[in-house]
Amino acid sequence: MTGTLLEVDHLEVAYPGPVGAVPVVKGVSFDLGREKLAVVGESGSGKTTVGRALLRLLPRHSQVSARTLRFDGVDLLSASESQMSQLRGQRLSMIMQDPKYSLNPVMAVGAQIGEAVQRAGSVGRAECRDRVEQLLARVHIREPGRVARQYPHQLSGGMGQRVMIAMMLAQKPRLLIADEPTSALDVSVRQEVLDLLDELVAEQGLSLLFITHDLNLVGRFCDRVLVMYAGRVVEALAASELTRARHPYTQALLSAAPSLQHRRATLPVLQRDPAWSAA
Question: Residue 14's beta-bridge partner residues?
Fold first, then answer.
């Protein structure tokens, strides 16, 4: 890891309930430099909430606190909405899980990318159009001019994710948060999107926070892994050391994953320990 871009110390998120605040993220701490850091865990473990908290995209009634929540020298807790508006997209971007729900269905994708291009700096119409096509070509989309005129419903899942990545790249962010960007894709397209993200990290020096539930994937793709359970980080380790994880929850997730090499009559069932939530 080279330098520290993001510092998170004891991040907590809660929502008001009928008998008091309900915690959903509990004391999460990590640093992120120029690397690919995975946050893994089951659905509901708090992975996406952590990513949205960094961008301050949680509902207004959420209660967010931390000892430190700093990105590139900016205190994200005390930053004004104007400062956050400047950060989002330009220096800190997020690829949402499903482009069908993230892209505007009544705008051509080129126009949507064009808005991000204009946000990065005022340019003329012709220059903006050229920049949009360059970005689409950069994410390996053939016939970028034709694709720019299409609407989200005309794109495949893989194409939609590439459009989302192109939109994020328009403003040249330093940190990219990818929220399960491959969960709705088939195996071959998923690998193409991962290769593209890997290429961008290497060429542009991006830091990547990769949110997923796929432990096998991050073992091959990321540098470090945070394992979350019930709002807490229960284990942090190098991705290369994943098969030697010590926490029983991580071990259980790994053993529950099906394998083509080692056939089993029955997959193990995860036996949860209440102590994991209170650790």
Answer: 23, 63
